[in-house]
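User: Need the bound-state model for 2-acetamido-2-deoxy-beta-D-glucopyranose:
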Amino acid sequence: MGRVNLLVFLALLSVSTATRTISKSSSLTRASSDFNHVCNAEKFASYGFEMSLYPFCNKSVPYNVRLRDLVDSMTVEEKTIPGATSFPTVILSAASFNESLWKSLGQAVSTEARAMYSLGMAGLTFWSPNINVVRDPRWGRALETPGEDLFVVGHYAVNYVTGLQEVEGHGNSRDLNSRPLKVPACCKHYAAYDVDNWLGVDRYIVSDRDSIEVLVHGHKWLGDSKEGWIWVVVITIYPNFTMPAVKMGKVRESDIDKASFYLHNVLMRLGFFDGSPAYAALGKDDVCTKQNIELAIDAARQGIHDNKNDNR
Ligand SMILES: *[C@@H]1O[C@H](CO)[C@@H](O)[C@H](O)[C@H]1NC(C)=O
Ligand SMILES: *[C@@H]1O[C@H](CO)[C@@H](O)[C@H](O)[C@H]1NC(C)=O
Ligand SMILES: *[C@@H]1O[C@H](CO)[C@@H](O)[C@H](O)[C@H]1NC(C)=O
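Assistant: Bound-state model below.
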C-alpha cells in the first residue's frame, strides 16, 4: 500500500455524498448519503480502496492510535485543510464607503464558498449579510453589520449581495426569478416591523437557526399549548407537526406548496439540478488565495484610512 492522497480521497467521499442523486435504487447511494461516515467500507471499495488496510478506520483501536495513523499518512499539504480568507469585520469595510469594494468582497466570498462546496466542506446557502441597522452600541453584534446609517446599510447590502449572487453575464437579465445564482444571500435578520416588499421576487423566509425551538422550549412563549406547535410548523421544519396541522386545517397545503416552490426555485437557480461546471471546477487552490488575502488587507486599509478623515 503506497501513500494515498488522503485529503483528496476524503474530499471525494464527501463530494460523492454532496452530489448524490435522488435515486434510491442502489445501496451505495443510500450508504453515501451519510455525510458524516468517512470509514464506510462500501464507499472505500467504490473508489478502489480496501478499508481494512487503513488503521484509522479500525474501531477496535484507541482514538490516539487511529489519529496517529491518520496524521502520519498525510503530506504537509494535506494536513493544511483550507480555511477561507478572513476578511475584516463589516463595520470596518463599511467605513470605506466604497461600493465596488463591497461588491468585490461578495465576489471573493462566493467564489470561496463555491470552492468549499466543491470540496464537500460547505453547503450552498449562507446566512449573510447581517444588515440590521445598529440602534444601540450595547448590542454585541454591531461589528458584523454596516452600522447605523440606513443609506450606507442599503448600499452595502445591494453591492455585497450582488457580489455574492451574480453569475457573470447574467447580471442584467430583467426577470429576477430566472437569473442563475452563484450563492444565495440571506439578508438577516427579519424583524417584526420590517416592511414586506419583495417586488415580485420569489423568496423564502427562514427562522434564525434554532430560534423557534428556543422561543417555544426556552422562553416558553407559547406555554404548553398544542396550538403553539401549530404556529411553529407554519414557519419551520418540524415534520412531526406539519401533517397534523394540515389535517386540522391550520396549515393549507397550498401554503406548503408555495414554500416548497420558493425553496426549489433557489436550488434550481443555483444549478443544483443542472450542474454548474465552472463552479464545480473550483477547489482548494481557489480558497484563501494570495489575491483574496490582498483584498482583505486592502479592505482593512480602506476602512481605517477613511476613519482618519484626512482632508475628506
Ligand atoms: C483492528 O484492530 C484490532 C485490535 O488491534 C485487530 O485485532 C484487528 O485485526 C484490526 N482489524 C483490521 C481490519 O485490521
Ligand atoms: C475601492 O475599492 C477598490 C478595490 O475593490 C479599489 O480598487 C478602488 O481604488 C477603491 N476606490 C476608492 C475611491 O478608494
Ligand atoms: C418526532 O417524532 C419522533 C418519532 O415519533 C420522535 O422520536 C421525536 O422526538 C419527535 N420530535 C419532536 C421534536 O417532537
